[in-house]
Amino acid sequence: MFGILTKFERVLEKFKYPMYNLLRSNQKTLVRLMIALRIP
Fold it and tell me: Which has fewest Cβ within 10 Å: 3, 19, 23, 30?
């Protein structure tokens, strides 16, 4: 279980910054989507 968790954490660490940059670049689109779906 611990080995699987460690592997998952490594994958998460590897993809953290690209995902963060992707979220930042799509932030306005996400905000519009949230407003459209009325998510607080």
Answer: 3
